[in-house]
Amino acid sequence: MRESLLSFLLAFGCFLAAIIGWRFPPWLAIKFPDIKVDICGAESMAIKHSEFPGFERPCDLRAMKVRITSREIDQNASLTVRVFLKLVPGSFGRVGEKICTPPHGALSPSLPLNPIAMPFPLLPNTTVSGDIVYEIPMLHVGTLGEPIQRRLEIEDHISEKRMSILLSGDLARFNTSDMSPSRGGVEILGPEYDTRTSEKDGTNTAPTSP
């Protein structure tokens, strides 16, 4: 009887571990999942958000068409993708990037977009496809570097690890091995862009937070 109970508990534990994506043995650290990312194009459109009746705020809406494929055999993932845009160095002090926010409010169904909700689950040997949609407030358009450079950060909420890659252009294909570990947050430039240092030198720059 006792042996049967132990066998049942062991079998149930293995079944539960397979569903949840536990590693075996459980004390091994979970690595960032092995994924493949295809960026198949980009969209840009000017829209207006209705903040409240009688007031509309212009917005530069951007979207990347992506396919994200898990190459894992038994490791689940829960991913959030963030887009950072490179700023003109010094335009916001030592802050070198602008993190792009998801659209405020519901998007019109007439837009040719299929937004991916964040975070999204990625099971082993499966693919998630759609649009990574973000907006650039008009306030920041003049501070972006030319040509626009994007840094893509992917956070896995199961392994609690982040990886990032710098993109150039609207088409890309890369794997986990092509990415670099990320600590999260925007890039911080060197002390030569410090606002206080600029003020001492006689250049009065007063950057605001991106």
Structural features, described:
There is one protein chain. The chain is mainly beta and 210 residues long. The protein has two domains: 1-27; 31-200, Immunoglobulin-like (Sandwich), CATH 2.60.40. Helix content is 12%, strand content 39%. The protein contains two helices and ten strands; from the N terminus they run H-E-E-E-E-E-E-E-E-E-E-H. The chain has helices spanning 2-20, 195-200, and strands spanning 35-52, 55-70, 77-86, 97-99, 120-122, 127-137, 150-156, 161-167, 172-175, 180-181. Strands 3, 4, 5, 7, 8 and 10 form a six-stranded antiparallel beta sheet that branches. Strands 6-2-1-9 form a four-stranded antiparallel beta sheet, with no helix packed on it. A hairpin with a 4-residue loop joins strand 7 (150-156) and strand 8 (161-167). The longest helix is centred in the first third of the chain and has 19 residues, at 2-20. It is globular. Mean pLDDT is 79; it is low at 196-209.
Q: In the CATH hierarchy, what is the architecture of the largest domain at level 2?
A: Sandwich
Tell me the helix content: 10-25%
Cα-based radius of gyration, to the nearest Å: 22 Å
Poorly predicted regions are 196-209
Number of strands: 10
Oligomer: single chain
